[in-house]
Design a protein that fits this description.
single chain; 302 residues; alpha/beta; Aminopeptidase; 7-stranded mixed beta sheet; two-stranded antiparallel ribbon; 9 helices; 14% strand
């Protein structure tokens, strides 16, 4: 398929799936870099709100609020940015497609469902049972057909576009670096592995070196440290489904998850951005610039 045909096909797919996701495209892609923000969606529509005893502000405790805004400079720097439009509590596309809790539903789930994952046990499957602070999302049980339709309509289109972006980037440049953009509470909550612990500014997750070349992770860590951030690797977040699934360094695809401390740019209680988002977008833009200009030898090319 010629480049103009590829672009046309992607634009057509985007037009058909606007309710699920959107892509901020650059005029021209400058580097083998793709950004994705799976948890910043904030379309709290009537179906979700009507089914939950929680108000919207409480539901937003699980949202990576404003992360898409923090990375908004990406297309101007020659990098595409994919973002989910639906909220994480409606559907979490940083999970396997069918991580579901049988206790949430009014009839048996299909046999292909993964009902025994640690995420499901914590109440945080593809369709979550609880928000990040532990409150139950739904007042009653859900219909299985509704859940499967939600996954089919929203989860798969998001990943189809992400896979297309990654593959197109690798085909063009020979390699691809996928940055999965997230945020984290400033203090570990009851559902986390570090309850009550105050967190650093940024956690880089590369699945302990299996999803991304260590040289790339080290490069990103150095840039962020030079920008004044306190950075850790893999603790308490080593990377979710996106990082594990797409990160295949031996095939030329590297995936790195970035968790940004919310207290740096927002009021975590009211979910209101600080003035100019605390200046974080400008610093993150410098990270994107550095990744665009990064020596591709760090990919481990032979």
């Amino acid at each position: 398929m010629a480049p103009n045909e590829v672009a046309g096909a992607l634009e057509a797919a985007e037009s058909e799936a606007q309710i699920s996701w959107a892509v901020a495209w650059p005029p021209a892609q400058r580097a083998p870099l793709v950004l994705a923000s799976p948890h910043s969606g904030r379309d709290y529509h009537g179906e979700l709100v009507a089914a939950s005893p929680l108000d919207v502000l409480t539901l937003r405790r699980s949202e990576d609020a404003f992360v898409d805004d923090i990375y908004a400079a990406a297309p101007m720097l020659g990098v595409p940015l994919l973002k989910s439009l639906y909220p994480r509590v409606f559907l979490d596309c940083n999970r396997e497609p069918y991580e579901l809790d049988p206790a949430m539903f009014d009839s048996p789930l299909p046999k292909f469902v993964n009902s025994r994952s640690p995420r499901v046990a914590a109440g945080l499957g593809t369709i979550a049972r609880v928000i990040a602070t532990g409150e139950e999302i739904y007042a009653g049980r859900l219909e299985v057909d509704m859940a499967l339709a939600r996954i089919r309509t929203h989860y798969f289109p998001y990943h189809e576009m992400l896979r297309t972006m990654v593959e197109r980037t690798r085909d063009r440049f020979g390699v691809c670096l996928l940055i999965d953009c997230h945020s984290m509470p400033s203090v570990g909550g009851p559902m986390d592995a570090d309850p009550g612990s105050r967190r650093v500014d940024i956690v880089l997750g590369d699945c302990f070196g299996t999803a991304c070349a260590p040289a790339i992770t080290t490069f990103a860590e150095t840039v962020l440290s030079d920008l004044g951030f306190a950075v850790k690797r893999n603790v308490p977040y080593a990377g979710g489904f996106t990082t594990r699934h797409y990160g295949r360094p031996t095939e030329g695809v590297h995936a790195l998850q970035i968790e940004l401390n919310r207290s740096l740019y927002m009021d975590e209680t009211q979910i209101v951005p600080l003035l100019d988002l605390g200046g974080i977008p400008g610093r993150i833009a410098k990270l994107i610039e550095a990744l665009v200009d990064m020596d591709q030898a760090l990919f481990g090319l032979r």
